[in-house]
Structures are given as C-alpha cells and as structure tokens.
Amino acid sequence: MSIMTKIIGAVTAGAGAVILFYGISNPEIDFLVYFVGLIVMSIGFSLFNAGRTVQERKPPPPTVTEIRCDNPECTFKEIRDFKKGDYILKPVEVPCPKCQGTMTVHGVYMVREEPEQKYAV
Ligand SMILES: [Zn+2]
Q: Which helix (H) or strand (E) holds 79?
C-alpha cells in the first residue's frame, strides 16, 4: 500500500516536473501550465513522503529549563520554557530577580503528560 503510494507519488512528481519543464522551455505557453506543473509536482512529492512524514511531523515533547541562583544564600529557582541552546551549567544572561546575582541552568527536563510528573526533578 505504502509502496504503491510512493510509486504514484514519484510518477505524479515526475509528470509535474515534465509539465513544469515544458512550461519553462516554451515561453509562449501560458504561465498557467508552469503553475499546474508546480502544483502537480508538490502533490506528487507529498504523496511520495506521505508514509514517513507522519512520524517526522510529530512535535517534540515540551521541554523546560530549571534555573537556579548561584548565591547559596538565595533560594531563587525558576522553571521556564526550554530555549534552543540551553544546557546544564550554562550561565544565564539574566540576573537573579531576588539578589541580582548570576544564575545557572541546573536542569533541562522533558515535560511528561501526567500532571504530577510535570516538573519532576
Ligand atoms: Zn539570587
């Protein structure tokens, strides 16, 4: 079934490419042909990739970053959304809102779907 879809997709994409090429190489032809070729080709490609894109498009699980103040006397701790480039022991640019000291990333966690495990340390 999925192989059949792939074949149909490849054929459709190929046909689209032919139409597209035909439209480009013949300037007197209405640009609608070019457009149809583009659409047919994109349909073919989406058919061709239909089997695997389902898994690839799954969004990554939400991740949170735990930040703690470096000052041992300050107990400030914050959980915020994970930002690209966050890693454990990364210094945080933002000063501590409580003591204006430096803060460090202390953990990066995946958020589980179960609410009781949401901010598990
Ligand atoms: Zn602090």
A: strand 77-81
